[in-house]
Specification:
- The complex is a heterodimer of chains A (235) and B (219).
- Chain A contains ten helices and two strands.
- Chain A has 235 residues and is mostly helical.
- Chain A has a two-stranded antiparallel ribbon with strand order 1-2.
- Chain A starts with a helix and ends in a 19-residue tail after the last helix.
- Chain B has two domains: 54 residues; 157 residues, no CATH class.
- Chain B has a five-stranded antiparallel β-sheet.
- The model of chain B has no long low-confidence stretch (mean pLDDT 90).
- Classes of the chains: A mainly alpha (235), B alpha+beta (219).
- Chains A and B meet through helix 5 and helix 6 of A and helix 1 of B.
Chain lengths: 235, 219
């Protein structure tokens, strides 16, 4: 594996195959926990940890796992590592743990985790697999963060509320002043769907524009990278 | 080896599965062992943080979390599975009771509370320990989520005493009482208000029994 292959893995996770806005996997936490930036980033980083570790473990063990029972073993790996992260957060980030509550154990059932093991870690070497897990997790975290920011800002008029649970002494930002009435719909589930829809549309628009540019001047020497046949459909 | 029977295949894969299970269970057990003391400490610290908000730390000098009575299921406190009452003392004299109480009729399930009651029956403070009320609507019962940081909603209970405040007044205004609530979000504050009223009456009626029982006793 050369450097370009690693770059492609990262690019896949962050943009091309982003779990949140392209693969649309792992929607339960994406929609449920994104009521504030702090919640979104915290759960996102917990997911990154679980994904990187479970991809690494699965890749290391891939030659010892009988094909017939690979799914139960993968789930076992994910469940065990999620338990580890859950216990560690409970011990060392207790107030944040109380806020995220049930969503940390639910990382076990976040389908993006199993999807990356099955699609990537089961066939690739440990280093690349770890990177893939981390990149996919970060891609999901980016979506969570933007969603959390949109919903918190519009719904509540603040940013970083609850930051004192992670960084003691830090304060939230009242963006629109203290008397912002709030826009409850954005905090409630419908706001999550609405914000995610906007995000997917925005990502598609950016991607379409990028492709149109790439087509209009194909031999551009500074094109992002050669092995990116983004799609083969006719112009 | 070439003839793979269902039994042989099951045995082999079950063996592999057990090996993996043993390995990962060991990992979980190790992590549990390494974190459980810290988790208990964090939970206690969290509890003490809430307790400090309802009863000043310099008001008592005993080891509060160790001086408790264990209650069985107590309907007056909404405790279906029992709970604890912590006794605060200064130089041996009672200075307050900290009751765990549950409001069973929140908008989305139970609202767990901690209520501090002074020996004369006055409510010293109330805090929400856990709840699942609607974010941005009913969750102002928790001062962390209350927009009014200067005089959070839950502060209204401080100083109320069931001996002097008639039961009819110990209700949200919508029900004819004197407790304020935000328009359009009455269910959560009503649940908390009624639970605090019940807890205050329970504490007043059982004060001597609660203070007198031996540490760790089950009532």
């Amino acid at each position: 594996m050369d450097l370009r292959a690693y770059r492609d893995i990262a690019w896949n996770g962050w943009w091309k195959q982003n779990p949140g806005v392209v693969q649309i996997l792992g929607m339960c936490p994406t929609l449920a926990i994104t009521t504030s930036i702090v919640n979104a980033v915290s759960l996102g980083l917990a997911t990154v940890l679980v994904m990187a570790m479970s991809n690494l473990a699965s890749s290391l063990l891939r030659n010892f796992i009988p094909y017939e029972i690979r799914i139960p073993v993968f789930i076992l790996i994910i469940a065990a590592l999620t338990t580890v992260v859950d216990l560690a957060m409970n011990a060392y980030l207790h107030s944040l743990y109380l806020v995220l509550g049930i969503f940390i154990p639910l990382i076990v059932t976040n389908c993006i985790v199993l999807a990356r093991i099955e699609a990537f870690a089961a066939k690739n070497e440990p280093l690349a697999s770890t990177l893939d897990g981390a990149a996919m997790g970060l891609g999901a975290t980016m979506v969570l963060t933007v969603l959390g920011a949109m919903r918190e800002l519009i719904g509540n008029g603040t940013l970083f509320s609850g930051i004192e649970m992670v960084i003691p002494g830090a304060h939230e930002i009242q963006v629109f002043g203290g008397d912002y009435p709030g826009f409850l719909t954005f905090i409630l589930p419908p706001g999550a769907f609405f914000a995610l829809g906007c995000l997917i549309a925005g990502r598609n628009w950016l991607e379409a524009r990028r492709q149109a540019r790439a087509r209009s001047n194909p031999p551009a020497p500074q094109a992002p990278s050669a092995p990116e046949p983004t799609s083969a459909e006719p112009a | 080896m070439s003839q793979s029977t269902i039994l042989g295949l099951s045995t082999r894969t079950a063996g592999a599965m057990m090996a993996f299970t043993a390995a990962f269970t060991a990992l979980m057990a190790f992590t549990y062992e390494a974190t459980h003391a810290q988790i208990a400490a964090s939970a206690n610290e969290e509890k003490m943080k809430l307790i400090t908000e309802v009863l000043a730390a310099n008001a008592y000098d005993n080891s509060l979390l160790d001086d408790y009575v264990q209650l069985g299921p107590t309907r007056e406190l909404g405790l279906d599975h029992g709970g604890r009452v912590y006794r605060a003392r200064k130089a041996g004299a009672p200075v307050g009771l900290l009751l765990e109480a549950t409001a069973p009729d929140g908008y989305s399930g139970d609202i767990d509370l901690i209520v501090a009651i002074l020996p004369d029956g006055t409510v010293n403070g109330v805090r929400v320990v856990s709840h699942r009320e609607t974010p941005g609507l009913g969750d102002y019962i928790d001062p962390k989520k209350d927009k009014d940081k200067k005089s959070p909603w839950i502060g209204q209970f401080s100083g109320l005493n069931p001996a002097t405040l008639p039961l009819d007044a110990w209700k949200v205004k919508k029900d004819g009482g004197q407790i304020n609530s935000h328009a359009g979000a009455t269910i959560s504050p009503r649940a908390v208000t009624n639970a605090v009223a019940r807890a205050a009456r329970y504490a007043a009626a059982n004060r001597d029994r609660l203070f007198g029982a031996a540490t760790g006793a089950s009532l």
